[in-house]
Write a structure and sequence with these properties.
With about 210 residues, this protein is of the alpha+beta class. It has one domain. It contains 8 helices and 4 strands. Strands 1-2-3-4 form a 4-stranded antiparallel beta sheet. The chain is globular and about 45 Å long. The two termini are about 25 Å apart.
Length: about 210
């Protein structure tokens, strides 16, 4: 179910839903990703934990659950988070008219750095933000080169790096969530809705997100 101000509609093509902003009348088509690339069950699980992470009462537990999913291959969880960020960028586009890619370009963490380590801390934060932007842009555009760049940057053997990138992604999602709220929006359960009302057995369109009208 979509929050107030947003509405889901069916489309003639199978496996795709339209998300309509009832205020701006803008609409976008959303489709589940290729199951061989990113299963919808993974997306739904991560989406549920992100919702719990946004609640201060369950934040610590949710991040523990998400971090636990990084064991072995961290990419499905990290890419799911980036896919959700891309979907939120599309939601903000529907309300404001700003291109989703521009929304991703503006993703940032606001903070004040003090002390002798400040420049290095800021450099690391900007590096992590750039990597999250790349992952979200890969999900938004379905571009193979961008996806490869994100995988190469994120799939490192440095101990604890995946957990660090996950935490940074969640912090960026929190910032984007506040921006959505400032425009009277709540992120809809995109993955859960696609899981219920679409299926994998269809000729998948190019990409998970595209404008309508």
């Amino acid at each position: 179910m979509a929050p107030a101000g947003l509405a889901w509609q069916t489309l003639p093509e199978p496996g795709v839903l339209a998300l309509v902003d009832t205020v701006s009348r803008r609409a976008a088509a959303l489709a589940r990703p290729d199951p061989a690339d990113l299963p919808i069950t993974e997306l739904v699980t991560v989406e549920q934990q992100v919702a719990r992470w946004l609640d201060p009462a369950t934040r610590s537990d949710a991040e523990t659950v998400l971090a636990g999913r990084l064991a072995g291959d961290p990419m499905p969880t990290l890419r799911s988070v980036c896919w959700l960020i891309a979907s939120w960028a599309v939601v903000l586009h529907l309300r404001t008219g700003a291109a989703p890619s521009e929304v991703l370009d503006r993703l940032t963490l606001c903070g004040i750095w003090r002390g002798p380590q400040a420049p290095e801390t800021e450099r690391i934060w900007e590096l992590l933000t750039a990597q999250v932007r790349t992952g979200a842009l890969a999900a938004l555009t379905d571009d193979v080169g961008t996806a490869t760049a994100f995988r190469a940057a994120a799939h490192t053997r440095v101990a604890g790096y995946a957990e660090c990138l996950l935490h940074h992604s969640l912090m960026l999602m929190s910032s984007l969530w506040l921006t959505l709220g400032a425009h009277g929006l709540e992120p809809p359960d995109v993955a859960a809705t696609l899981a219920v009302y679409t299926h994998d057995g269809f000729d998948r369109p190019q990409g998970s997100f595209r404008p309508l009208g």
